[in-house]
Each structure stands twice: as C-alpha cells, then as structure tokens.
C-alpha cells in the first residue's frame, strides 16, 4: 500500500496542472492522424529537459495514457485510427457513428478506456515483483509464435468472408517485407527509391483508412448524411450503466490487454485486435460485429488502455520496454537519472510512486475530459462531407509527411490508399492488411534470430517447438485456426440451406 | 449533373490538399543559420543514438552556440543504411540538413554493402560521445571470464551464440576481432537494436553478448561483465573489468561506438567552420554534460580535425578486417 502515501505529491498545484494539460493535450495529439503515442512521447522528451524528475515523468505518463485514448476519437468520428492501437476501435465505432450513435460510441470508448487503464495500472502497482521476470521468458521462438497467433486472427477480422480477410492479410505480410531485411540488411522489392525505407506503419495506416474514406465521403448521399445528423443523445449515466452491463466484453478486453502489455514488443495494436477477435468469437451475435456493435468499441478500448500499465512492468524492473511507446519512455526515465531496476522502488521510491500514482489520476482526468468533449461530436458530424474530405486529406498528407519529413512516405500513402479504395469496392477491408503489416516484421525478425540460435544449438524443430510457452502458443494457434474453419464451414452450410 | 457535382467536390478537395503541401517550410537566406537545422538520426526514436542526439542538441538555440534550434528527424531502417543513404543522396549541402553518425557502423557498412555513403562524401562536424563494447554473459552463466568462454568456443566451434545490435555495428566488429584474435568460431545473433540484444542475454536465449558499456553498467546486477573492448579500463563505471589486451587477446578500440554530427561533402567551408566551432561549445555546456552523465551516457568530445583523423584510421583498419566479407 506504499503507493497511497505518495498521492499528495500528484495533487500539488504545479504537478496537477501539468497532469491536466498533458492529458488534454494528449487527447488532442492522439486524435491527430500520424501522431501516434510513440511520436507524441518522443517529441515531448526534450521539453522535460528543463523540468524536475517528478513533473517530467507525470507529463510523459499523462500524454502516454491520453494519446492512446485520443486516437479513438478520430477512429470513431472520421474512421481514421489516430494510432495503430485504435484500428479495432474503428471497426465498430465508425459504423455506430454512421448510425447516429457517435456520442454513445465516444462514451463507451472513454468509459472502457478508463476501466481498462485502471486495471492495468493496478496490476502494475500490486504485481510488479511477481511479473517482472515474465518478459524474459519471451525469447525469439516465443515471440515468433505470438506473432503467428496474431496472424491466425486476421481472417476473422472485419465483416465479410474469411477467405478475403486472409488474402488481405497475406498482402499486408508481403508489404511488410518491402525495403531492407530487418536483420541482415538485404534489399527486397525496392522497385523505386521511394520504397527504400520500406512501408512504415503510419503512412500505411493513414493511406489504408483515410484515403478510401475520403473518396467514400464524396459518394455519401444526402440521405446518409441526414442519418448521421440525427444524432441520438444519451446521458452519461445511461452510458455508464450500459457499459457495465457489457461485462464480458470488458473483461475479455482488459485481461488480453494486460497479458499483451507484459509481453515485450507486442504493444497496443496487437492487444486491441486480439481482444476484438476473442470478444467476437465468444459473442452470440457474431454477425453484428463490424456493423456497429458497442461491444467492439468496449473491448478494443479497454484492451489498448489496459496494456499501458503492464507495459511498464518490464520497463521499470529490467529496462525492457513492453511496447514501442514504453521504449521511448525509457529515454525519459534515463535523462532524469532514474535507472530501471530495484533502485527505482527504494532510493527513487518517491519519484517512481508519484509517477505511477499520476497514471491513476490521469485516467480520471481523461475520463472526465473525454466525456465532456463527447457531446461536441455533433460539430464534427455536422460538417458537410465534402469539406470533411478536404480537411481529412490535408491532415493525412501532413500527418504522413511529418513522421520523417519524407515525400516518399506521402507517395506510398497515396498509392496504397488508392489501391485500397479499389479493393474495398470488391469487399476487401483494410484492417487485415494493417495487421499483416504490423505482425510481419515481428514474425520475421524473431524467426531469423531464432533460426540462427537454433543452428548452433539443437536444431530448428527442437528450438521452436519445445518449452511450455511455445507449446501453449502453438496450441492456441491451432485452436484459433480450427475455430475459424468450423465457423466458416457452418456459415457456408447455412447460406447454402437458405438458398435451397 | 451528378458526375459534375462529384468532380467539383473532388477538385475542391484536391486544391485544398495542395495548399496544405505548399505550407511545408521552405526558405533560403544568406546569413547562416537563420532557420532551424535538421539533424537526421538513422535509428528509431528512443534508441541510444536518438536519445543522446536529442540531449546534446537541446541547447543549440543559445546565442553562443548555433543561434538556431536543432530538430531531430528519425529515418530508421536496416541498421542505419536507410537514413544515411537518404542523407548522402537527397539531403541539401547547405548546412541546414545534418546527420548523426555512428562509427564504426557507417564506415563498416560502406565497405561491406553497396551504400550511397562513405567517408568520401561526408564531412564530420564534431564528436560528442564514445561508448565501448563490453563482453557480457547472464549472471547465472557458467562462464566467469572471457578466457573460459573463448576456450569453450574453441572446443565447440559455432556453438557459442553472441548477441549484438545489428550487422556491422560496433558489437559485431568487436566479435569479429575476438574471433580473429583467438581463432575461435562464434555464431553472431544480430538483433534490432541494443536493447533487444541485451534482452537476449538477460533472458538466457544466447550464450553471451556484446553490448554498450553504458547499458551493461545499468543492468550490472543481472550480468557478468567479462571484458571491455577498449585500450584502457573504464575507471569511472567499471574499474574492475579488464580490457581484452590485459587478458592477452588482441582486441583494440576499433569497435568503440563514436557518435557525432556530420554534414554533406559539398557544404560551404564557412558553414562547416561555423558549425564545427558552435557544436563543440554546445557539447561542452554544463547542462548537457549533467544530463548525459545522469543518463549514464559517456561523453567524449572531439573537434572536427580529430574526427577526420579518426574516420581515416577506422576506414583503413576496417577495410582490412572486412575484406573477406565484402558483398558484390
């Protein structure tokens, strides 16, 4: 219960001001396409240069927490995930907004973020000593199987046929191999210089989601716009009650988020999508997913925020970051003289606990601020679609360019986006492509590393297919594939019976 | 009619987006520097090079230094090749686009791979840091000294796995030197970045590792640090760790990771001189030193002339060491 005694530190005037500004700023940054949580924290590190350790870390922690939730706002309102972590949120959040339920979607998003985030931080507070070594159990072979497990859920993402999902996922995996080999540095598929840097995640994300969306907006009829304008309002209290009644989606999301957070290198994008897939599989109304089922938003948002706390466990104890953003946060710790390890909880206990407490307070601030801005979503939905299209295009170009000041990224974004628009006309959805793009490098680099280690050890099969974690993960992969096969067969059979 | 209104919408949106592109900063002037300077870092945000580059350039805007702020732009990929290729080929030689270098990485890569950069088309400005590679094993490892590990590797060729941050980085060079000096055969496991390489050692996935002195020092409770690939011991952080030379193994300081700032070859000499003077003063700032020290990042400031010599020495040595590895 050591953490309680440091709460007053968070509530000093200056620290609380920093925390509130950081959370509000983080929500806005997170809602901007292209500014991922990782980028936002990296940009802020120089600002903390002139600050004391405690306020500096409070600022970074608050921004980390809030950007993850903020990315959901643009995912829901304009169908562009602010960050990779919000892809799963968009799958049902945007259809909800289209159906006039934008406000509800935002409410559920912030409430679930809050619940997931709180659980995650509590896990960090109480179980850090127990969990600190879990990260080390994940070597190349284990991480390879984690990535493969992610690949197995690709097919069932989005509504539509499993086959199309798998094909789109394969395209994503192939796109991820363009550029230099992550380990050995060989060039692959570099047909023009613009591809030398490979297809990085932010340009692809913006291209795949924003460009088809922009072109789609120009096709929106007056009738559809009218439907979005007929915004149903709902009181916050009703939202909270409904949110808690979806206990299954919340639980699945939070648990998966926490587990993924502890595994080093996986991060929020994987957490949200895996949770979404599981909730869909356990649901009785599978067909309603992807068409505006609130459970989709609830589970995705609780998962990607539940990931934040646990991703700090290996960071604070072993200096191994659990997510890409936590990796940047490590730099923030170091310049303040805080070296991860046991010292953090003894010599530097005051700063460390103040930081962890501020994560809890940031969750509360985020909830209040988020629920407050939800009611203004009507201003966004009221903007005529063709103005919106222009605004989104500007944001998309600007967001892509600013990641590494590169026009090549803008060309890549535009090309992928145009192709995706055409593909969407024949029933392909962008989510599996992005997932392939994210998981490809994780699977590949760990496979190559594992292969090199296996060569000098007991050989490939022995290395990749022994050990409790490996076997468990393989079993989960098989289960996941088997489940998809069975449901697909049942679906096909049913649709045949119906036609007869 | 419907198509027409569709087209109109489409063009209004296109024009607005082009306006957005036009706003991207672009200006030229006589008095250098009159606008912010970009420094390309060829590694991802949060890595050691990125983190140190951000720290040492923090004070750039001060009157005595460069009078303009420095902006860090990350272009990661292929152990630095993507960023440096971009810099050598596309960046302007006007002093407003600089890059951070890592020696021996970029020199070794320019020898082995077909890169667009080499010491011939780049111009050093100043060096801020030096991080020697150290040989580490997990605290639970059966090996207690570098000799024991080498002995085992000699008797079991290729059975000893050693992790390090990517291909032809300082860590890789150190292992190549160790193999050449002892005749033992090791299996190098390149990972994406030093943090990952350290994780492999801590998790017991590899037999040993070469890693940065600073990072190994921070994790010293969970490691055994066997030897340091430098000419002298590090009295400040690791006074008890011997150099390879003390152990009778001919591994010198060629793998020490030097970090600094460089420009393109054709940059005007006045601009280079101005930069060379300003950056050294900026690196010497007390506040920079304090933050770097707190972060456990060893500073090693070298002037432009010293770096020119250091680059040439490394080029000569690495060409010899890597002559069998060159890819066509």
Descriptive account of the structure:
The complex is a heterodimer of chains A (500) and B (328). Chain A has helices at 7-10, 13-31, 37-44, 53-78, 87-98, 102-131, 140-154, 162-176, 201-217, 222-229, 236-245, 247-262, 268-282, 294-306, 308-311, 313-318, 324-335, 349-374, 377-382, 385-404, 407-425, 430-455, 460-464, 468-499; strands at residues 179-180, 187-188. With 500 residues, chain A is mainly α. A two-stranded antiparallel sheet of chain A has the order 1-2. In chain A, 59% of the residues are buried. The mean pLDDT of chain A is 85. Chain B has 2 domains: 37-131 and 256-321, D-Maltodextrin-Binding Protein, domain 2; 133-247, 3-Layer(aba) Sandwich (D-Maltodextrin-Binding Protein, domain 2). Chain B has 11 helices and 11 strands. A 6-stranded mixed beta sheet of chain B has the order 2-1-3-10-4-11, sandwiched between helices. In chain B, strands 7-6-8-5-9 form a 5-stranded mixed beta sheet. Chain B is globular, with a radius of gyration of 23 Å. At the A-B interface, α3, β1, α17, α20 and α22 of A face α1, α2, α3, β7 and α7 of B.
Uncertain regions spanning at least 5 consecutive residues of chain B: 22-29
**Rg for CA atoms of chain B:** 23 Å
Q: What fraction, in percent, of the residue positions of chain B are helical?
A: 25-40%
Q: So how many helices of chain A? A: 24
CATH architecture of the largest domain in chain B: 3-Layer(aba) Sandwich
Please, how many helices of chain B? Answer: 11
Strand fraction of chain B: 15-25%
Strand order of the largest sheet of chain B: 2-1-3-10-4-11
């Amino acid at each position: 219960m050591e953490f309680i005694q440091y709460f007053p530190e968070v509530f000093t005037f200056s620290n609380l001001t920093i925390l509130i500004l950081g959370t509000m700023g983080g929500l806005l940054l997170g809602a901007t396409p292209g500014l991922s949580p990782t980028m936002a924290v990296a940009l802020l590190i120089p600002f903390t240069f002139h600050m004391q350790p405690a306020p500096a870390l409070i600022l970074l922690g608050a921004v980390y927490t809030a950007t993850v939730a903020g990315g959901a706002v643009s995912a829901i309102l304009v169908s562009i995930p602010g960050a990779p972590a919000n892809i799963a949120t968009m799958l049902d959040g945007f259809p909800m907004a289209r159906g006039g339920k934008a406000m509800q979607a935002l409410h559920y998003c912030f409430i679930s973020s809050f619940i997931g985030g709180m659980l995650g931080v509590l896990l960090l507070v109480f179980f850090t000593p127990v969990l600190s070594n879990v990260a080390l159990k994940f070597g190349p072979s284990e991480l390879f199987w984690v990535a493969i497990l992610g690949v197995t859920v690709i097919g069932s993402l989005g509504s539509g046929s499993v086959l199309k999902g798998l094909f789109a996922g394969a395209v994503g995996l192939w796109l991820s191999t363009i550029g230099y080999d992550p380990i050995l540095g060989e060039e692959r598929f570099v047909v023009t210089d613009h591809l030398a840097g490979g297809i990085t995640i932010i340009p692809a994300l913006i291209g795949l989601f924003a460009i088809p969306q922009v072109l789609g907006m120009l096709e929106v009829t007056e009738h559809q716009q009218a439907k979005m304008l007929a915004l149903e309002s709902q009181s916050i209290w009703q939202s909270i009650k409904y949110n808690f009644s979806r206990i299954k989606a919340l639980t699945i999301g939070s648990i998966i988020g926490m587990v993924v957070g502890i595994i080093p290198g996986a991060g929020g994008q994987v957490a949200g999508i895996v949770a979404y897939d599981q909730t869909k599989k356990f649901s009785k109304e599978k067909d309603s997913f992807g068409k505006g089922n609130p459970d989709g938003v609830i589970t995705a948002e609780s998962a990607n925020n539940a990931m934040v706390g646990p991703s700090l466990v290996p960071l604070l104890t072993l200096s191994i970051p659990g997510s890409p953003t936590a990796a940047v946060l490590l730099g923030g710790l170091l310049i303040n003289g805080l070296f991860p390890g046991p010292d953090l909880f003894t010599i530097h206990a005051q700063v460390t606990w103040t930081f962890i407490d501020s994560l809890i307070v940031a969750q509360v601030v985020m909830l209040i601020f988020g629920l407050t801005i939800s009611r203004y979503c009507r201003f966004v939905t009221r903007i005529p679609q063709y103005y919106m299209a222009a605004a989104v295009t500007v944001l998309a170009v600007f967001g892509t360019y600013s990641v590494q000041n590169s026009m090549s990224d803008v060309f890549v974004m535009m090309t992928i986006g145009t192709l995706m628009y055409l593909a969407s006309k024949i029933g392909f959805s962008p989510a599996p492509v992005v997932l392939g793009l994210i998981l490809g490098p994780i699977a590949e680099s760990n496979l190559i590393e594992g292969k090199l280690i296996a060569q000098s050890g007991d050989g490939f099969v022995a290395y990749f297919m022994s050990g409790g974690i490996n076997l468990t993960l393989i079993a989960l992969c098989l289960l996941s594939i088997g489940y998809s096969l069975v449901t697909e067969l049942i679906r096909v059979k049913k649709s045949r019976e119906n036609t007869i | 009619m419907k198509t027409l209104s569709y087209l109109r919408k489409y063009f209004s949106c296109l024009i607005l987006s082009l306006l957005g592109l036009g706003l991207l900063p672009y200006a030229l002037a006589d008095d250098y520097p009159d606008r912010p300077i970009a420094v390309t870092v060829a590694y991802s945000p949060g890595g050691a090079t990125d983190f140190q580059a951000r720290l040492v350039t923090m004070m750039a805007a001060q009157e005595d230094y460069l009078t303009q702020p420095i902006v860090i732009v990350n272009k990661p990929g292929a152990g630095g090749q993507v960023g440096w290729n971009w810099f050598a080929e596309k960046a302007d030689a006007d002093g407003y686009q600089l890059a951070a270098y890592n020696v021996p990485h970029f020199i070794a890569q320019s020898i082995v791979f077909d890169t667009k950069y080499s010491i011939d088309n780049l111009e050093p400005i100043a060096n801020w840091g030096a991080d020697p590679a150290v040989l580490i094993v997990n605290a639970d490892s059966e090996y207690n000294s570098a000799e024991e590990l080498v002995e085992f590797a000699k008797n079991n060729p290729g059975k000893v796995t050693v992790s390090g941050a990517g291909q032809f980085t300082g860590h890789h060079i150190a292992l190549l030197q160790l193999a050449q000096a002892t005749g033992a055969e090791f299996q190098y496991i390149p990972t994406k970045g030093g943090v990952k390489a350290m994780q492999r050692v801590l998790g017991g996935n590899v037999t040993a590792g070469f890693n940065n002195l600073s990072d190994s020092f921070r994790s010293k409770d969970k490691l055994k640090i066997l030897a340091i690939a430098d000419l002298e011991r590090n009295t400040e952080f690791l006074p008890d760790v011997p150099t390879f030379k003390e152990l009778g193994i001919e591994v010198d300081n060629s793998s020490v990771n030097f970090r600094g700032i460089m420009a393109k070859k054709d940059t005007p000499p006045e601009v280079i001189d101005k930069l060379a003077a300003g950056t050294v003063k900026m690196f010497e700032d007390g506040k920079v030193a304090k933050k770097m020290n707190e972060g456990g990042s060893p500073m090693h400031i070298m002037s432009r002339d010293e770096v020119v010599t250091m680059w040439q020495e490394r080029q000569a040595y690495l060409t010899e060491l890597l002559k069998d590895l060159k890819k066509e």
